[in-house]
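dude i think i finally got it to work??
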Amino acid sequence: MPGAFSLDAQQQGRFLRVIIHGELDVATTPALCEEVERALAKGALEVLIDCRGMEFIDSNGVGALLDLRTQLSDLGGLLILFGPTGRVAQTLEVTGLDREFHVVAAPE
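look at this
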């Protein structure tokens, strides 16, 4: 049974760090999108999604990440996925999205 979903976002100027625990799916994706879009309105241009606690991502979660990446790119910004492991890393690899996203093992 997956852990409860939680999202913690911390913005410092143009940088937003979002820590996700649990599953990023149809029920939880709107919370991520709303948080990032709020930060974009406040000037964030670099968004780091901390995936270390993310247990699962479905097509809705992947689609949301792609949409957010496009929004940031259009603004001259960057979406970074930090530390995806397990099923999340496997999903990104199988779909080829590990080469589409900026994925890092440790924050730079």
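The mean pLDDT is 93.
im so relieved honestly
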